[in-house]
Amino acid sequence: MYLLNEKNIKLYFQSSNKFSIKNMNQVNKVETEDQLIAFQKRIDEGEKIEPNEWMPNNYRKNLIRMMSQHAHSEIVGMLPEGNWITRAPSLRRKMILLSKIQDEAGHGLYLYSAAETLGASREKMLEALHNGTAKYSSIFNYPSLSWADMGTIGWLVDGAAMVNQVSLMGTSYGPYHRAMIRICKEEAFHNRQGYELISKLCEGTEEQKKMAQESLNRFWWPSLMMFGPVGKDSPHSEQALKWKIKTESNEVLRQRFIDMTVPQAEARGLTFPDPDLKYDKETKTYSYGEPDWSEFFNVIKGNGPMNRRRVAARKKAHDDGAWVREAAEAYAGKQKKKTKN
Ligand code: BYC
Q1: pLDDT per position in the chain (341 positions), as tens?
Q2: Rounded distance between C-alpha atoms, residue 152 and residue 159, angstroms
């Protein structure tokens, strides 16, 4: 039996995760072995866990960690593409880009709301993003330098995200599972528009084809790193898999993405910046070189090429939007008064 007093619980939730629990009633002061066994049985039988049901504190904590990082990734992920809206080469491309970026904002909102069902405070989650303590996907700390990057982001970044999120559709937490179903539908469009853009460049002039290749060269390794590290460098995986917070390992998903993407590139005459990439006829998969994990850890520590600029841009957007939140609250207050009268 685990006994925690209120102060310890608060510390436990705040210490490693940079967020706080708003509703302390949702946190267990006592966790018995029987409760943990019964919970694992529900997971093993494929049941979904819903917000008001009993769950271990550690399950709640890890979901808030992962879902809030996921939500941050969606809204920080709007920035590299937002950079190109005014320079889209046609009205069609501009409309596609705008609609895709709006979808990402929506994904962020579903995910923040889903994390709130676990008792996480939206204000605290955003505060952690703005003060630089929260993580978000490493990929968004790289710059978008050419128009071809708009294709590469859709094709590779959304492609990698989709492989990961299709797997997360099987997550054991109900609200996360439902958010993933909706997000994956939109992600499929994001991925296809990116591949279509790259395909068009590859059918174009030598210069356009070069632009596509150069973009693939820059984004390939960071896209593989999106799936996260392996072994002892992936400390959350073992328990997350046991509780079906995640349903497949980082490595399995990375391999699936590679096997899906390499033939797509080859069909367009593109090559990869990995001399070790080759098809293995026996396993029917591609073997590949080791990503530079020191670069990855440097990026997630906040030292990637764009970390500081990304966080500053998010903070500015939040501050600039203060009047919208105030107006919405004032309007909601008025509506409440009206319904009372
Ligand atoms: N980037 O034990 P591990 C999109 C951290 S956005 C940064 O394997 P876990 C889109 C990890 O957090 C979709 N950090 O962790 C939007 C942990 O650190 P902490 C983004 C990473 O959670 C706009 C430590 O490394 N998708 O599609 O079991 C435009 C150890 O890792 C990363 C998601 O967010 C990383 N890549 O597995 C376009 C998916 N990898 O927390 C597109 C949801 C690892 O102990 N998240 N770390 O400080 C997940 O599936 C999992 O959290 C991960 C990591 C596979 C990422």
Answers
A1: 555 555 666 666 665 445 567 777 788 989 999 999 999 999 999 999 999 999 999 999 999 999 999 999 999 999 999 999 999 999 999 999 999 999 999 999 999 999 999 999 999 999 999 999 999 999 999 999 999 999 999 999 999 999 999 999 999 999 999 999 999 999 999 999 999 999 999 999 999 999 999 999 999 999 999 999 999 999 999 999 999 999 999 999 999 999 999 999 999 999 999 999 999 999 999 999 999 999 999 999 999 999 999 999 999 999 999 999 999 999 999 999 998 87
A2: 9
* H or E, element range at 248: none
Query: Please, are residues 151 and 88 in contact by the beta-carbon 8 Å criterion?
Result: no
Which residues' Cβ are closer than 6 Å to ligand 1? Answer: 65-66, 69-70, 73-74, 77-78, 104, 135, 137-138, 153, 157-158, 161, 164, 225-229, 234-237, 240, 246, 250, 300
Q: Are 9 and 27 in contact (CB under 8 A)?
A: yes
Question: Cα dihedral angle (223, 229, 234, 237), rounded to 10 degrees?
Answer: 50
Among protein residues, the one whose CA lies closest to atom 29 of ligand 1 = 77
Long-range pairs of 267-274 with CB within 8 A, sequence gap ≥ 24: 268/198, 268/199, 268/202, 268/212, 269/202, 269/209, 270/198, 270/202, 270/212, 270/213, 270/216, 271/213, 272/216, 272/220, 273/216, 273/217, 273/220, 273/221, 274/220, 274/221
- Sign of the CA dihedral running 80, 248, 302, 75: positive
Point out the ligand 1 atom lying closest to the alpha carbon of residue 62.
Answer: 22
Q: Which tokens hold the place of 43?
A: 């997971």
Pocket perturbation via mutation, ligand 1, pick of 67, 135, 144 by most ligand atoms within 8 A of CB: 135
Residue 278, classed as helix, strand or coil, is strand
Residue nearest to atom 51 of ligand 1 (CA): 66
